[in-house]
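tmp note - Extracellular solute-binding protein
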Amino acid sequence: MNKFQRKVSVPIYTVFILLLFGIFGISYTIWGNQSARGTKVGAAEAVSEATVGVTKVVWWHAMSGENGKVVDKLVSAFNASHKDITVEAVYQGSYYDSLTKLKASIGSTIAPTMAQVYDIGTRFMIDSRAITPIQQFIDREKYDTSQMDEAIINYYTVDSTLFSMPFNASNPILYYNKDLFKAAGLNPDQPPVLYEDLKKAATKLTKGGVTGAYFGTHSWYMEQFVANQGAELVDNGNGRDGLATAWQLNGTDGVKALAWWKELVDNNVAIYSAGKGDTSKKAFAEGKVAMIFDTTAALRDILGSVEGKFEVGTGFFPKASETASGGVGVGGGSNWIMNSKSGEEQQAAWTFMKYLSEPEQQAIFHVNTGYFPITKKTYELPIVQENMKKYPQFKTAIDQHNASKLNKATLGGVLGVYPDARKLTEEAVNQALSGQQSPQAALDRAAAEINAKIAAYNHILK
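out:
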């Protein structure tokens, strides 16, 4: 058997996936028409699967809008320079939708060769036994990983094994209106970093129809608040010393963050509206709010929507105190190789992954999206240096990433029910900000439900 062929039978995959679907209420229709799944790009349309000597790689991804267009260009460039491989990139919807479709495809003939999965899908992908660890390819050809960003590559490394290839890396940052800062008597070049400083700034900025802040109720922000204070999201070394058994966002650091957030809302210096962030970006672009949170990958979109009406500033994600030992964790996604495909197809996928990680491709992706490079030499390229000079906002996420202390808190939590945990956490945030429950009670309730799901998931693995 080829060393990259799957080692676990299809029935085992099927039982594992069906059990998870039953426990967590996940369902999705498996479709038969390939074209219904998204837009095909690159040279795939022109090259028949039967073409002799050409290996086809089907890549499912979750990059939409302008980011999706950049992905299409990278795929087209790869296909043009690799006559023995053709990559067909297929957009599968949001991160959550894409992972749901991937789960449904495991053990079937419609599974892709490789798939982009967001960071929080890592534990599930490992436990699915449906993937070939990237470490196998690295070891076989002695691929040099020292060229890659240590924090990013460490996120996807569990038990000393790199399971997937990092692709798009991001972290949350503060976006603020420099013009409104000036008008409020605040230094436009010194964005607030501590909770207390942001509260004071929001209070000064709230006037004349403008609200100081508007943060979408995304679980990711709560997770980053905790990491920024050096606290771990789940037990057992953030799920890295063993399977996580307890969700810890209801601890002191999580409650402190949510209580601070609620105080901003209660004092009418921050807007509360159920939703993750799209509405806040619109309000920010219209000059109705002075500060928002969002991913660095939204930078291009935000600059474009503002259209020069005011100067956009970017700052570090806030933390409770200067003495906090943590930092922000890595967000984004990575690419996984499915082990149901032939060794030849998997090897072709690995070749494509290496191409995407090269400095030249990372530079194109970085300057056109806002995701920061996974390969260190990318920063030396003229296109990146010129972009930094023109748009200094791009540097904020990179500086924040480099300033974060490398520990298990900032590596990020690893657990199999992470998507479910996020949904329950967002419910808790909404309950607290709307006054239905106290921050402690809301987070305690969410933790209890998440822990029950963790226990059920871990039981399946035994």
